[in-house]
Write a structure and sequence with these properties.
The protein is α/β, with parallel strands linked by helices. Helix content is 38%, strand content 17%. α1 runs parallel beside α3. The strands form 3 sheets. It has a 5-stranded mixed β-sheet, sandwiched between helices. The chain is built from 8 helices and 9 strands. 34% of the residues are buried. It has helices at 6-13, 23-31, 40-59, 71-81, 95-107, 125-130, 166-176, 200-204; strands spanning 65-67, 84-90, 115-120, 135-136, 138-143, 146-152, 163-164, 193-194, 198-199. A hairpin with a 2-residue loop joins β5 and β6 (146-152). Residues 202-218 have low confidence and may be disordered.
Length: 218
């Protein structure tokens, strides 16, 4: 994705998470703003192009936080279906996985350039082994099928390992290059959340990690 005018980005980000957004409303947002007289025509053209692209991506299930039931489908999406992907490896009875789910559910509708996916580790024995997933939650960010970042538990988020907000997670993923820009506005239900990660390998006899990670797949 190329650079986008900040004014266009602001208008687009405030509308594209809505299912019933109308392009005329977006165009009017720029037409009616007297502060945007400079380069108005270029901005209108860019807004139209971005709106069309956003609707196309929404039709391809972008903007949703989807659970994938089998690992072959997940591999196909990450390798060929979407350039940017955030994948959460979870287990239904792990409380911290539920916390991570809440954050990702908030971010998915805002970041339509990126596919947000989750898969139960019980449905992904091959990937759990290949990607050496031991601690849950485990979130791996992919660019063109290659890992760009891995979040193990809640490490590297917030002010400590035990607290983080949706904004903290978004900022981490933007830094990793799997989200285009920061869009989340903090609200009363965005965090912080508390809790330590669960050891998947210890509790479920899952695969142990090794010194070298192999975070891409064929």
């Amino acid at each position: 994705m190329g650079s986008i005018d900040p004014a266009v980005a602001s208008v687009l980000d405030s509308h594209t998470e809505k299912d019933d957004v109308d392009e005329d409303d977006l165009l009017n947002s720029i037409e009616d703003d007297p502060t945007l007289d400079s380069f108005r025509e270029q901005r209108l053209q860019q807004l139209h192009a971005e709106f069309t692209r956003a609707k196309h991506l929404h039709n391809q299930e972008h903007g949703q936080y989807a659970e994938i039931k089998d690992e072959r489908t997940l591999m196909d999406i990450v390798n060929t279906g979407a350039e940017l992907c955030v994948v959460h490896f979870f287990k239904t009875d792990f409380h911290r996985c539920g916390i991570m789910n809440g954050h990702l559910e908030r971010l998915a509708p805002l970041h339509f350039d990126t596919r947000f996916l989750r898969i139960n580790v019980e449905n992904a024995p091959f990937l759990v082994t290949k990607l050496k997933v031991q601690v849950l939650p485990c979130v791996i960010a992919f660019r063109k099928g290659v890992s760009a970042d891995r979040i193990i538990g809640f490490e590297g988020l917030g002010y400590s390992e035990d607290t983080f907000s949706t904004k903290d997670l978004e900022r981490r993923l933007v830094k990793s290059g799997v989200l285009v820009r920061e869009k989340w506005t903090e609200g009363e239900n965005s965090g912080p959340f508390f809790g330590r990660q669960d050891s998947f390998g210890d509790r479920n006899h899952g695969p142990r990690t090794s010194d070298n990670d192999d975070d891409d797949w064929d």
